[in-house]
Amino acid sequence: MSNLNEEVSIKLIGKITLLLPVLEQKLDLQLEIKRAIDETLYNYDVQTKCTDLITSDIEEKAALYRACKKLEGLSPNTLENYRLFLEKLDQFYTKPCGTITTMDLRMFLAVLGKGKQQSTINGYITMLKAFFGWLQNEEYIIRNPAAKLKLTKVPKVILQGYKAENLERLREACTTEKEKCLFELLDSTACRISELDEIKIEDINFTEQSLIVTGKGNKQRIVYFSTKAKLHIKAYIGKRTSGYLFVSDKAPHQHIRVRALQLILSKIKKRTEVTERVHCHKFRRTQATYLLNSGMTIQGVQKILGHTSPDTTQRYAQLSQENLRNEYRRLVV
């Protein structure tokens, strides 16, 4: 179906929904009506009286949006996700941003979100709200068509950290000093793998057993590492006094990237009989839960993890039933 046929189909759905408000809450019925319209239009080529006005500026506005967000410190991965998502929006509609309606966005979400989990669709809605909210704030559009989009409540599932015995199996499977250094830093600092990747030797304070790391939004914070990590860091860097901590094994010993560190962890797992999923981010969850159960406040754990909101931290960590029972007895009994 051509873009003009699709646009007519969307507009017809919008008009019908205005006439029959009951459709507002019945997305499945809207889709069924749209399919009927699409089938009817299939053998026709829709033309417009003003084809010179049917141009999209989504790509242009998306480029400006990403440039502004880059200055605000959004990570390269987040910016790339926005690029790919807004590219799909541009392919879906051949029209200026200012003419896109709430109904347009609902139909876009219905098509793009087909077969996706609700949490994924909520992510799409969040990106639409951010983009069109920015367009409105920058006065590129008068009204924000994404303002009326509602997020669906998704049950908050607290994912588990590593089992203690599996953590020890992984530790024992490390063979080189690089592997041991990476493992102990992941285990004790609760850093993101991207943060460890950017560590330079001059960022390390061996006296305080601390590191300066740069997290999301280019925000720096201090994290602490264990004595085991200290010993393996020293053994790994040898006589090196500057440059990145993690480098390639062969000359000229260039800085290795996140993917290479992830592969190191994957190789460690293959030497064990650990069946649970092993990935770098799970160390953050494990350490956060350990710190919380050891008595650290949620605000303290929040600072260690570099979260802007304690709600995010709470999703990473959970109090054990034993700790909850002890806290209750201390306060109530």
UniProtKB/TrEMBL annotation:
Residues 62-136 form the Core-binding (CB) domain. The keyword Cytoplasm applies. Keywords: Cell cycle, Cell division, Chromosome partition, Cytoplasm, DNA integration, DNA recombination, DNA-binding. Residues 153-329 form the Tyr recombinase domain. PROSITE patterns: CB, TYR_RECOMBINASE. It is found in: Cytoplasm. Its main location: cytoplasm. Belongs to the 'phage' integrase family. Site-specific tyrosine recombinase, which acts by catalyzing the cutting and rejoining of the recombining DNA molecules. This is Tyrosine-type recombinase/integrase. It comes from Candidatus Clostridium helianthi.
